[in-house]
Amino acid sequence: MKAFRNLAIVLFLACRAYGQVTDAFSAGNFTANPPWTGNDTDFVISVGQLRLNSSGTDTSYLATANTYTLSNCEWNFWIRLNFSPSGNNYGRVYLVSDQQDLSGSLNGYYLQFGEALSNDQVELFRQNGTASTSVCRGTTLIASAFTIRVKVTRDASGLWTLLIDPTGGTNYVSEASGTDNTISTTNFFGVSCRYTTTNATQFYFDDFYVGPIIVDTAPPVIDSVNVTSPNSLDVFFSETVDLATSQTAINYSVNNLIGNPVSAVRSTVNTALVQLTFSQSFQSGTTYVLTTSNVQDVPGNSIITSNDTFVFYLPQYFDVLVNEIMADESPAVSLPLYEYVELHNRSGYEINLKDWTITIGSNTKTIPYVKVPADSFVVLTSTAGAPFYPGVISAGVTSFPSVTNTGNTITIRDSSGNLIHSLAYSDAWYQDAAKADGGWSLEMIDPANP
Questions:
Q1: Rounded to an integer, what distance in angstroms lies between the CA atom of residue 136 and that of residue 125?
Q2: Which residue in 34, 131, 209, 356 has the most C-beta neighbors within 10 A?
Q3: Residues 260 and 249: beta-carbon distance below 8 Å
Q4: What tens digit of pLDDT does each residue of 7-53 get?
């Protein structure tokens, strides 16, 4: 989150001397280094982020001085709106303004986050007086609450480019561009929030940078290789990879006679992910090496040849057990108020539960992507409950089945539908009326002998 925190400390004097802006709000205020002015009583610093802290229905803004040249300039920042934007609830980030007061008539450029109807996308506008003209419009949908990171560049010819990472990281994807030379200088940079009562505290901003275009010279690296089926892999890179080179099959090879994939497809959802499919199947329990070369990031930096090991393992019956059951979570006894089923991977291999199923009674739901190391545990619970299990591996299952208080049958199957474990539990297992009344879990006594 604090991508520029150290940079702000080291380069602050130089940045301000040349009219740049760098602020990650590490100092816990917005009154100095650099100073922001405007509706200052409507904003606070919360957990190292600039947050609107107002009330009622209104528009609030903050601005800071910025005179950095628009020629070959970059703006980037993090933004979160914790609500569904609308025509009465939206944010603006003013990249350029000739006026400190962002609520009135001015000449400049701004990004708008939110609009009427349900096709909200980030859009760059030029403002002359009180009139606005669109320069370009992104493609990431922000019609519901969102957290994203945005980068905008403007070159010497007046070409504006809008890049977004919809996950809030730095894997930017270029979404739109447009040329506009109408305004060539600036005096201020700032934010503006238009809100109604329910959203008066739901705007967050962080990691502002305005300055020379940051040139990426670092090559991509592989963060992880995950087996998704007996003949397919997910390859996660450290950043967005170039479409052409990442989809060139001969840039990947697996040893032990597997060879090159028959297809390499970059994900349309995560542009740092490439999905490989091979004609030959992996052998269970065998260690393989994936060799990757010539894959580039968007600026054209090529990966240094990477050799990454992976193991394919086909789980067997009893490899993953239903180890603990929280059927009656209330009243709470040192545990969150959420039902859960804990699974134990007692095999000697890491197992990915993606597309496995859990059935409680007759209600079957799909388990999301979650890797469970050898001899480790995972808590399956509702999507609302998952964040309340810090320090353990957990997975939020959409529409998690109700864990019946008095008893039921729980069945776990792998992604191919093979039975892995099934048991029928009962509240009689408590053998204690007080514990059966709620707040206590049932745990397998001897996992070595299920």
A1: 7
A2: 356
A3: yes
A4: 333 333 333 434 689 999 999 999 999 999 999 999 999 999 999 99
In sign, the C-alpha dihedral spanning 20, 25, 31, 33 is negative
Mean pLDDT of 111-127: 95
- Let me know whether 407 and 430 are in one domain: yes
Confidence class of residue 357 from pLDDT cuts 50, 70 and 90? very high
CA atoms within 13 A on the CB side of 208: 29
Dihedral in degrees, nearest 10, Cα atoms 241, 247, 248, 252: 80
The DSSP-derived string for 155-202 is: -TT-EEEEEEETTSSS--EEEEEEE--S----SEEEEEEEE-GGGTT-
pLDDT in tens, 135-169: 999 999 999 999 999 999 999 999 999 999 999 99
Contact 194, 201 (CB under 8 A): no
Domain that holds residue 297: 222-312
- Do residue 120 and residue 189 come from a single domain? yes
Q: For the residues of 315-359, what is the DSSP string, one character each?
A: --TTSEEEEEEE----S-SSS-SS-EEEEEE-SSS-EE-TT-EEE
Domain assignment present for residue 449? The answer is no
Residues 361 and 277 in one domain: no
SS3 248: coil
Quote the Cα angle for 288-289-290, to 5°. Answer: 120
Question: In 3D, which of 22, 164, 148, 143 has the Cα closest to residue 78?
Answer: 148
Q: Are 399 and 378 members of one domain?
A: yes
Together in a domain, 426 and 383: yes
Please give the average per-residue pLDDT across 343-365, as a whole number: 95
